[in-house]
């Protein structure tokens, strides 16, 4: 096999699967544990949101540290931090959960930046979308099993099983990561410090000034708020439904992401053009998914699980499409920094999905909260429209830092 399916890349995908396997369990256990301890939706949302909010904050600095100290050395350090965080979940309450989420966020900032930028830079243009899709696919595979495992652990009422799962994941991921090697081409794939041009703080302004980055970031932010609301509150919302299981919902959503990303990886645009109809259709799927979840409280499990499939399809298509587009149209000298900022908007959106939508659920209901998510997704259908085939060229003067 060659390209995105060659052995060096497959090894990175397997490491990704191991690294993110804990989250598929924690995304169910944390809300349920929080509720059992009397936490409000606002508190649960803050704890869940702390993970990717921290990731977003540290991501811009991750590339610099990887460039300075080398990807393998940094990888080994962050795997130790991640392992400590997983063990902390097993010996603490809500306060410890918050600290553990923050530590996980720091680790993920470095882990995901090194791997994603490495895949983008190491693959030829025609294979970029496949590589990005496969990386993201392997990060979702644990979601096909983890939620059901988490519910089984919770319903068994024996948290020793939870402790065993976290310790095992920490040890296996650490051992696999410590044995990982990175060839010279892959090592150079991380952001290349001085060649990035403007300082990190000046680069933040490009989220508004650069038309490509602005459009993609707004779309990703809005969609990620919806994804975050699902991650944070589906385990609690499902308990209010007459029929509907959070584990099955999350398994269906993750399974759809995996199948769609693999089956449609060659269909994702990889030509540097803005495909309005494709992106508008994806946002329509997102809005329909959120509304199906909202209506499930009345319509039952059929709408609940339909929402899972639609949500997974939208999730499978949007991120790799926008990321691949940006790799073509952003200025080469600052591309990795700008992509890091784009990924940070996705992190921020998922975080806000818990932090902002938690109070909404406390004040109103989960159903109304998901209806608001549907309205947000629908508004992005109009925003995604563009009359031209391409917003503008990658060397556009306005896209360069001043």
UniProtKB/TrEMBL annotation:
PROSITE patterns (alphabetical): MFS (PS50850)
Tagged with keyword Disulfide bond: no
Keyword tags: Membrane, Transmembrane, Transmembrane helix, Transport
Membrane topology: Multi-pass membrane protein
Keyword Transport: yes
Transmembrane feature ranges: 12-32, 44-62, 74-92, 98-120, 132-154, 160-178, 218-240, 246-264, 276-297, 303-330, 337-357, 363-385
InterPro entries in the record: MFS, MFS_dom, MFS_Exporter, MFS_trans_sf
Alphabetized Gene3D superfamilies for the sequence: MFS general substrate transporter like domains (1.20.1250.20)
Classification via Pfam families: MFS_1
Cellular localisation: Cell membrane
Residues annotated as domain Major facilitator superfamily (MFS) profile: 8-389
Primary location recorded for the protein, binned into one broad class: membrane
NCBIfam families per record: opine_export_Sa
PANTHER family per UniProt: PERMEASE, QUINOLENE RESISTANCE PROTEIN NORA
Full protein name: MFS transporter
Taxonomic source organism: Paenibacillus ehimensis
């Amino acid at each position: 096999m060659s390209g995105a399916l060659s052995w060096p890349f497959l090894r990175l995908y397997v490491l990704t699967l191991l690294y993110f396997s804990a989250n598929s369990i924690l995304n169910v256990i944390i809300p349920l544990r929080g509720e059992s301890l009397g936490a409000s939706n606002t508190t649960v949302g803050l704890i869940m949101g702390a993970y990717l909010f921290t990731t977003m904050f540290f991501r811009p600095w991750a590339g610099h540290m990887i460039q300075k100290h080398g990807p393998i050395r940094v990888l080994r350090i962050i795997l130790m931090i991640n392992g400590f965080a997983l063990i902390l979940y097993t010996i603490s309450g809500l306060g410890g959960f918050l600290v553990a989420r923050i530590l996980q966020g720091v680790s993920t900032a470095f882990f995901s930046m090194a791997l994603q930028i490495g895949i983008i830079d190491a693959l030829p243009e025609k294979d970029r979308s496949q590589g990005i899709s496969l990386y993201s696919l392997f990060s979702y595979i644990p979601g096909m099993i983890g939620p059901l495992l988490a519910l089984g652990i919770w319903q068994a009422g024996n948290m020793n099983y939870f402790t065993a799962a976290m310790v095992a994941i920490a040890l296996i991921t650490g051992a696999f990561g410590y044995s990982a090697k990175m060839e010279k081409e892959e090592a150079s794939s991380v952001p290349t410090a001085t060649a990035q041009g403007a300082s990190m703080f000046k680069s933040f302004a490009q989220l508004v000034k650069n038309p490509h980055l602005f459009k993609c970031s707004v779309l990703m932010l809005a969609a990620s708020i919806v994804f975050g609301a699902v991650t944070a509150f589906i385990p609690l919302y499902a308990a209010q439904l007459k029929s509907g299981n959070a584990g099955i919902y999350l398994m269906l959503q993750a399974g759809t992401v995996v199948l769609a990303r693999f089956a449609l990886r060659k269909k994702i645009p990889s030509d540097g053009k803005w495909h309005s109809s494709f992106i508008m259709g994806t946002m329509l799927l997102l809005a329909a998914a959120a509304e199906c979840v909202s209506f499930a409280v009345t319509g039952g499990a059929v709408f609940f699980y339909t929402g899972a499939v639609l949500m997974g399809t939208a999730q499978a298509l949007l991120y790799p499409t926008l990321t691949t587009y940006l790799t073509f149209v952003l200025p080469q000298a600052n591309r990795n920094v700008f992509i890091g900022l784009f990924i940070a908007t996705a992190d921020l959106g998922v975080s806000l999905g818990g932090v902002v939508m938690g109070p909404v659920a406390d004040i109103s209901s989960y159903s109304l909260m998901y209806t608001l998510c549907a309205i947000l997704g629908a508004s992005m259908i109009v925003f995604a429209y563009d009359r031209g085939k391409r917003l503008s060229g990658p060397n556009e003067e306005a896209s360069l830092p001043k």
